[in-house]
């Protein structure tokens, strides 16, 4: 138990636990102040994703491993107020998704926010947002592989973790190399499993709270009386944990560019984001803290969902959730291989990376897929070879990347919306609510999260490390932009 002591936000957030256009040599145009006519999005890529794939990617994309296990630390710190923490961060994410959806529906691109940042702010911004996100996704591939391997070695003790990571990497790398529809099929079934599991949990939890589940007594509101057990500081810790748990929602806007109807796909995903976040994140947190005492040791040791199912007397709850968490990790691994390869491809197509990464065969940027997987596996090797210096440095460096990306999204939308309204209002299939007020509210929320990170000693290290990488990429991108302008 906490016993009144506030747990520190210790190590950098492990993403698996919270738990997502011209060639080099040609001068890239400077960002125009005029909205250009629509063009075929990423014409050389396959458009093999069907609407059912995109719908399930959008639905399952919000359910990461962090929702099942990483939320335990947030509950231990914030108590029942974790519901408020997830609601506040969820509101911020809804605004970000709405802004991103507006731009992605108007300009479908596998580069997503990176392409939007280049169009709105300048090539240096697209370079910075794109390559920082690529590093984040590739590192996450390795982390998720490690997390999945730990679960499997728990079932099969004596087998080497690195071998399981290598196996998972080969399977998903091969699937992504073959065709985009393979990625879509994997994600469709992974999402179906995750959605089914969380829906069943919510149904059982609501029945138990209502006192109509056989074999269990309703706890009523007995576990909710001390809403802020660790005061505002505990809420801050829970808020920071919840913000990072939402990372990965951007994948659907990347995938939409390779769907049958990109505009329809983005619009549908964004418009349903609100109820998906409210139901899966906020709803499940409310069920957990109502059923289980917030200071129960099982919440952190076993994970909040296993603790809640144990409370209901569900047999084999731990192993059932291990299967679900394994599916969530493998799903994230698959999605991040896909997302990182498409971001790299888009950057190269806009003249912002090694030309070899832009080679497309069979509608798939296969060199980019291989490079992303290789980077991810190097991260795995570093976790074994340099666990005390290089690997923690890498984790710190990506710690706040998602917030940097969100900042680029908000500033890009703020600048592009006016152009679209003046010159191509028919392309605004999705509109940001109460523009520009809520865009500024979102930016203020992001700044507030940065300030909160700076207050905590451990997250401060992540903030400064990410800031250093961002400034380095921005400087490289700006120098490149000036050199291209003079050419």
Secondary structure elements and their pairing?
Elements: H1 51-60, H2 65-78, H3 82-106, H4 112-120, H5 123-155, H6 161-178, H7 180-210, H8 231-245, H9 251-255, H10 262-271, H11 273-291, H12 297-301, H13 304-311, H14 317-349, H15 366-385, H16 390-398, H17 401-423, H18 437-455, H19 457-486
Helix pairs in contact: 1-7, 1-10, 2-8, 3-8, 3-10, 3-11, 3-17, 3-18, 4-5, 4-17, 5-6, 5-14, 5-15, 5-17, 5-19, 6-14, 6-15, 7-11, 7-14, 14-15, 16-19, 17-18, 18-19
List keywords for this structure.
globular; 487 residues; mainly alpha
Short description:
With 487 residues, this protein is an all-alpha fold. The protein is built from 19 helices and no strands. The radius of gyration is 22 Å and the shape is globular.
Description:
This protein has 487 residues and is mostly helical. The protein is built from 19 helices and no strands. The protein has helices at 51-60, 65-78, 82-106, 112-120, 123-155, 161-178, 180-210, 231-245, 251-255, 262-271, 273-291, 297-301, 304-311, 317-349, 366-385, 390-398, 401-423, 437-455, 457-486. The chain is globular. The model is unreliable at 1-41 (pLDDT under 50).
Percent helix: 55-70%
Instruction: Report low-confidence residues grouped into runs of 5 or more.
Output: 1-41
Compute the separation of the termini in Å: 64 Å
Shape from CA axes? globular
Q: How many distinct beta strands?
A: 0
Give the H and E element order. Answer: HHHHHHHHHHHHHHHHHHH
Strand content: under 5%
């Amino acid at each position: 138990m906490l016993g009144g002591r506030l747990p520190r936000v210790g190590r950098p957030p492990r993403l698996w636990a919270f738990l997502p256009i011209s060639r080099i040599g040609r001068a890239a145009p400077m960002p125009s102040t005029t909205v250009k006519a629509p063009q075929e999005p990423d014409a050389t890529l396959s458009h093999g994703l069907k609407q059912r794939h995109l719908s399930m990617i959008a639905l399952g994309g919000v359910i990461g491993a962090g929702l099942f296990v990483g939320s335990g630390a947030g509950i231990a710190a914030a108590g029942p107020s974790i519901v408020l923490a997830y609601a506040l961060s969820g509101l911020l994410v809804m605004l970000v998704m709405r802004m991103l959806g507006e731009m992605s529906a108007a300009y479908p691109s596998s580069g997503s926010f990176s392409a939007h940042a280049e169009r709105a702010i300048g090539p240096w911004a697209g370079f910075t947002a794109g390559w920082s996100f690529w590093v984040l996704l590739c590192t996450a591939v390795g982390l998720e592989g490690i997390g999945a391997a730990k679960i499997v070695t728990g079932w099969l003790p004596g087998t080497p973790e690195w071998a399981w990571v290598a196996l998972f990497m080969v399977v998903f790398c091969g699937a992504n190399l073959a065709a985009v529809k393979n990625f879509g099929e994997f994600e469709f079934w992974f999402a179906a499993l995750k959605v089914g599991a969380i829906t069943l949990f919510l149904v059982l939890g609501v029945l138990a709270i209502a006192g109509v589940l056989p074999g269990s007594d309703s706890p009523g509101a007995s576990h909710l009386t001390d809403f802020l057990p660790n005061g505002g500081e505990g809420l801050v810790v829970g808020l920071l944990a919840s913000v990072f748990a939402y990372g990965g929602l951007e994948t659907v806007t990347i995938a939409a560019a390779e769907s049958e109807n990109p505009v329809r796909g983005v619009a549908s995903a964004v418009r349903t984001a609100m109820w998906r976040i409210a139901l899966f994140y906020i709803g499940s947190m409310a069920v957990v803290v109502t059923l289980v005492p917030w200071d129960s040791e099982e919440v952190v040791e076993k994970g909040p969902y296993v603790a809640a199912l144990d409370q209901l007397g569900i047999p084999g709850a731990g192993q059932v959730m291990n299967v679900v968490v394994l599916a969530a990790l493998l799903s994230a691994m698959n999605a991040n291989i896909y997302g990182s390869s498409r971001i790299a491809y888009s950057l190269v197509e806009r003249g912002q990376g090694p030309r070899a990464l832009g080679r497309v065969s069979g509608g798939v940027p296969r060199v980019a897929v291989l490079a992303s997987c290789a980077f991810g596996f190097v991260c795995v090797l570093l976790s074994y070879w340099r666990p005390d210096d290089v690997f923690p440095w890498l984790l710190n460096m990506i710690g706040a990347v998602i917030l940097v990306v969100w900042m680029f999204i908000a500033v890009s939308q703020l600048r592009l919306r006016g152009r679209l309204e003046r010159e191509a209002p028919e392309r605004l299939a999705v509109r940001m609510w109460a523009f520009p007020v809520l865009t500024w509210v979102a930016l203020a929320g992001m700044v507030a999260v940065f300030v909160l990170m700076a207050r905590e000693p451990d997250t401060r290290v992540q903030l400064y490390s990410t800031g250093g990488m961002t400034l380095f990429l921005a400087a490289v991108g700006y120098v490149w932009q000036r050199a291209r302008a003079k050419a």
